[in-house]
Amino acid sequence: MNYQEVLQNAREIINPKCKVCKACNGIACRGEIPGPGGKGTGSVFVRNYEKLEEIKLNMDTLYAFKELDTSVALFGKRFKYPVFAAPIGALGLHYSDKLNDETYSRAIIEGCKQAGVAGFTGDGVKAENYEVPLKVIEEAGGCGIPTIKPWGLAEVLENVAKAEKAGVLAVAMDVDAAGLTVLAAAGKPVKPKPVAELKQIVGSTGLPFIIKGIMTAKSALKAAEAGAYGIVVSNHGGRVLDHTPATIEVLPEIAAAVGGRLKIFIDGGIRSGLDVFKALALGADAVLIGRPYAVAAYGGGSEGVALYTEKIGSELRDAMMMTGAAALDDISQEMVYLK
Ligand SMILES: Cc1cc2nc3c(=O)[nH]c(=O)nc-3n(C[C@H](O)[C@H](O)[C@H](O)COP(=O)(O)O)c2cc1C
After folding, report:
1. Measured between alpha carbons, how far is 121 from 128 in angstroms, rounded to an integer?
2. By CB distance 3.0 to 4.6 Å, which of 10, 146, 310, 326 could disulfide with 299?
3. Which residue from 236, 244, 295 has its CB within 8 A of the most atoms of ligand 1, so it is best to mutate?
4. d(CA 175, CA 260)
5. Which of 149, 236, 239, 278 is catalytic?
6. Distance (Å, rounded) from C-alpha 150 to C-alpha 191?
7. Residue of the nearest CA to atom 29 in ligand 1?
8. What is the largest CA-CA distance in the chain?
9. For the chain, percent of residues with pLDDT exceeding 90
10. Does ligand 1 lie within 6 Å of residue 121's CB atom?
11. Tell me, what's the pLDDT at 189?
């Protein structure tokens, strides 16, 4: 199987909800929720993509070449690339019933593991939306990160304890889920979380805790105060609030506020290894990719997911060679063109 075949298979399965466009940029699916689009006008999904497109790479091939090292150390482990599959929940609603919580998370978790990286899993209104993917992670030797919705404290603490028992790499919470229309429509809305409650949640576990859905330096500092291991600079792929900036636009300010103190992940519109390079140049430690991993899972199962990861990894390697970065720590802001 090659990546073109993965895309062709996906097109047959998830069209018309996702059109599997040549560029996954939020235009054809604008405002389509249920579906993979952005909320309201859909402008945030489009902006995430376009602002990354505007950044270019500064080429430099006048140096003594060394073997490239694309690996990153996180959660006390080493991953082949600084790339993780983002959590995607409610597959049937947004893509197709062809995959469910179990088969989808199996494709993501196993495919990422095969490719030397790891996947996040999602959560939903039914307990099984969290528990089934968690079991898949456990069966993969714990190689994954479950993401809990900001439900009430007792339910969150229970889910964190289950994650710990499953031996996962880390646990995450998408604190921006208060803006999800589908949760409210299903009768289980969630609300913003105060720092004191987050502190209690983080303090309840020895697992690294990742707060997903941070868009300002102010929020990032609150995540640090809560004791988080890391944050995901994310606007949920434009699905929780219309008219926010793109994630790549706010990354430098957030990195200046908490870089070195918290691990910084970013997602939203990252579509190539070149985009991964740009995110690292502007202060991220690693990235999450959402919709393209969903397409890879529908089109090729775990093999499609592994193939897609390798594609991103090889593009990252190319970007590093052509700019003079032998390792991820060498990637710096001067290597990108921002004018
Ligand atoms: C259909 C769909 C379902 C999602 N479900 C979840 C979820 O359950 N939990 C979560 O934290 N984020 C969820 N997200 C957001 C992604 O994790 C991620 O932040 C976003 O898709 C990144 O942008 P990208 O798709 O442009 O790469 C979902 C996104 C989509 C498109």
Report:
1. 12
2. 10
3. 236
4. 22
5. 236
6. 7
7. 88
8. 60
9. 96
10. no
11. 86
Tokens describing residue 166: 């499953």
Residue type for position 287: V
Q: What is d(CA 78, CA 280) in angstroms, rounded to the nearest whole number?
A: 17
Distance in Å, CA 236 to ligand 1 centroid? 5
Which residue type occupies 15?
N
Provide the CATH number for the domain formed by 3-337 in this structure: 3.20.20.70
Taking the CA of residue 234 as reference, the ligand 1 atom at the shortest distance is 19
Question: In 3-state terms, what secondary structure has residue 66?
Answer: coil
Q: Which tens digits make up the pLDDT trace of 205-228?
A: 999 999 999 999 999 999 999 999
Query: With a 6 A CB cut-off, is 89 part of the ligand 1 pocket?
Result: yes
Spatial distance between the Cα atoms of 255 and 235, rounded to a whole number of angstroms: 16
The question of whether 94 is a catalytic residue gets the answer: no
Scan for tokens 């889910």, then name that residue.
159
The label of the residue with tokens 């490239």 reads 68
| Pocket lining: 122 vs ligand 1, CB cutoff 6 Å | yes
Q: What is the domain partition of the chain in residue ranges?
A: 3-337
Determine if ligand 1 sits within 6 Å of the CB of residue 268. yes
Overall pTM > 0.85: yes
Ligand 1 contact, 174 CB (< 6 A): yes
> What is the Cα–Cα distance from 276 to 81, expressed in whole angstroms?
10
